[in-house]
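The record is given unchanged here:
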Amino acid sequence: MAPIDPHSFTDSSHPLTTHISLSLYLDFSSSTIHASALLSLPPTPPPPHSPAVISLDTRSLSISSVTDPLTNSPLPFSLSSPSDPIKGQSLTVSLSNNTSNKILIAFTTSPSSSALQWLSPPQTLSKSLPFVYTQCQSIHARSIFPCQDTPAARVCYSARLNVPRQLSAVMAARHVERRPPTAGEAAAACDDALWCAEGRVVEEFVMEQPVPPYLFAFAVGEIGWREVGPRTKVYAEAVPAVLDAAAREFAGTEDLIRVGESLFGGYEWERFDLLVLPPSFPYGGMENPRMVFLTPTVIKGDASGAQVVAHELAHSWTGNLITNKTNDHFWLNEGFTTYAERRIVEAVQGEDIAALNIGIGWRGLVKEMERFKDNMEFTKLKTNQEGVDPDDVYSEVPYEKGFQFLWRIERQIGRPAFDEFVKKYIATFKFQSIDTDMFLNFLKANVPGIENEIDLQEWTEGIGIPSDAMEPVSNIYSKIVSLANEFKLGQMPREDEVADWRGQEWELYLENLPKSVEASQLSALGARYRLAESKDYEVKVAFLQLAITARCRDYHSEVEKTLKEVGRMKYLRPLYTALVQGIGKEEEKVFAKRVFSEARDSYHPIAQGVVESILAKHL
């Protein structure tokens, strides 16, 4: 008996669930879900000498019953106590009297479920109806339903969502139908009187391909859509201006899919729909299959938001089709996807834009080395996350160091050979969960002698940035870095030099400015180019970070406004950290505490936890 994942109670001697059938009654008045989960287990008996039990991950769930659905007889179960601060509680079910290879669990979620954000009508754009959405990565599916919440356990599922009639549901699964509720289908989630009550409707979905639990996703609210391609609709709150802006931003999505297919093989998920969520969504995008979730901050009005879409699309091959077995190997998801995203962007938008992306990523990687200087374990690609909350160590390292590793292999063997390798890798491991050693063995088998040319162990298990990593080479990249160096000498960029700059150029410029800029110099730059008011949050936040560090308190009102209007952790983490990190920051610390206390309820629970840990560390 051994755990298969540092973040899960799943044991190697226990059977892995093959299918989950969910009945979910969404109760907006209490911010809870009354639910049942029917788990199907493989018909094979457990290994000899191992107990006939299964351990499931749960967090903040109230379990009311566990039964054998064939006989309706109760199955003995227990919840571990106390709750583990990272993993939650293990739900252990005895299978010795189970006759059906199925388990029916009835349960209710908590209002504090770490995966769910319930928005009251005033928190939505329409201000008239509530909204709820999920974010299950990395280990939050267990706060919605009991499961083996590890990417090593891929599972198919079906789901019935019982919601108020005036709302609609979308899901990262195939939509079957919207219909009136019928008696008997609640399957222990609640009684028929509640399930079939007046004013309720059932939305039914099915996911027929096995996916890791972190890719379970739904949203319920007043949702509209626009068609933008043969495989793509853009969904958002049913506000015409938002839907129209999203449709314009993502009009080129089909081109991205076709490029992805030419590079990585056929698109396996049928639909590639996009859901633009409320501003509290904690990530830029989440690669939920068939239905990518996006922050509204990617709608910039210039189609550059398509780069986030390119990243989430690339996950359709690397991450969703081939998945890291545990979070210790997260780079297999994100390094590959960052590489794939940049190949798609290069094909659609050109080499210069791709080089800017690589340059911005390089600066981000260098910054992460500073962030983790006291804990270099998390500058490795293959990490040890035993006893560590993955949300606390989420960083650009698996993305950017992972990208650099794959780019290094491409330079070594040439792009045509590397393209063939990647296609073969995807075809070989699709619908599987793998680890770093499996990847390295496949690499050495298919690129003989590669270990003599590249130090594979240093790249995957070494700390820091390897000496054969590389900054991008391009004229536009060199020009921007050179202008940033001139600013250090007191020279501001001329208007003719930045006339055609978009958000990425400004972001790269600001990322290359020194941390210790004179407040007067920074204020002059901000005033001339109105960077604090930029509609592009990447630019605005990069500038505000510099302003906080330079003690330009004139910008505190803009910092406060930003922290209150978006919940994307990419912006919250650096701004709160800049406010509270370092000595002599008493005024900034008081300011940060006040802003968080006022903004906290508008953040997703994952973002709340991340900001709380930043404040706890420095206050």
Observations:
- Residues 351-371 form the longest helix (21 residues).
- Residues 392 and 613 are 8 Å apart (CA to CA).
- The chain has a mean pLDDT of 95.
